[in-house]
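Teaching note: in complex prediction, the entire set of molecules is handled at once rather than each chain in isolation. The prompt given to students was simply: 'Predict the structure of this complex.' The entities are:
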Amino acid sequence: MGLELSHLLPGRQRAALRHRADGLRAKIRPMTVIAVFNQKGGVGKTTTALNLLAGMAQRKQRPLGIDLDPQAHLSGIFGIRPRLADDSVYSFFMRQRPLAEISQITESGVFLCPGHLELTKLDTLLGKSVNVVNRLRSALHGADAAPDSVVIDCCPLLGILSLNAIFACDLIVIPVSADYLAFQGAQQVERSLNALEPVLKRRLPRRYLLTRFDARRKMSSEVFDLMAMAFRPGEICTTRIAENVSLAESPARQLDVFRHAPQSAGARDYRSLIDELVGAGLVA
Ligand SMILES: Nc1ncnc2c1ncn2[C@@H]1O[C@H](COP(=O)(O)OP(=O)(O)O)[C@@H](O)[C@H]1O
Ligand SMILES: [Mg+2]
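The expected output is the structure of the full assembly:
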């Protein structure tokens, strides 16, 4: 795994990071691939991917984040903004550059394959053949050094990037910010996943996650009731992510919520989400 940022750190930390990277190379154990997706923007996908990754890293895991959104917000929050598309997942898709060469360690203890604006071109450049939609799955499952967990941050479009995430993942987490358009986006995801089922040859495990929940707003509980009617009960997270100022502030400081405000309600909610996924056997 790349340690390109490590030269910015003091020697002792640098050695510790190198040790962790070596551990990552050496390990062979089951991994979980989680795609965070909703066909609507601004619903908490990046916030969820960021804090799932950071929360896992706090549990002594070495998760790998993959930023499949051309806006690359996840990469920016982790402080990684490649100037060249070739230093992002773009080169993985275009010329099969190994993910391990693209990934960089972040200060949250997460490895990250950054995104880049050029990713918008991939749909036109690559088409949607079976070979192309399975590219990420093949790379993750063929890797001789698998991370414990992989979290993929998706963009809201069901294009080649999101299809790669869906085909590669063991679990899809669908954040629904407590409003109607986010709920409609989630319904669209349910329809898309159902349409893909014959190709996937299984019902893809999924969890709908209510985010930006505000108990004082009627709309929040109305959206929750709609979710309960539209989706299978076992597929709605018990954990709700409340509207929380620390979650909104932390990206501006380039921090995950655990480093920005470890005692906040936002940190508590994302901790409990990870507990729930671990408890359900969905995450190691
Ligand atoms: N639980 C929350 N409480 C407050 N603000 C939130 C919460 N979740 C997300 N946000 C904010 O909402 C905006 C959209 O969230 P983001 O995760 O970027 O959505 P997406 O990736 O789906 O577009 C961001 O400004 C983010 O900081
Ligand atoms: Mg996003």
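Point out the following to students. The chain has one domain: 3-10+20-279. The CA atoms of residues 176 and 210 lie 5 Å apart.
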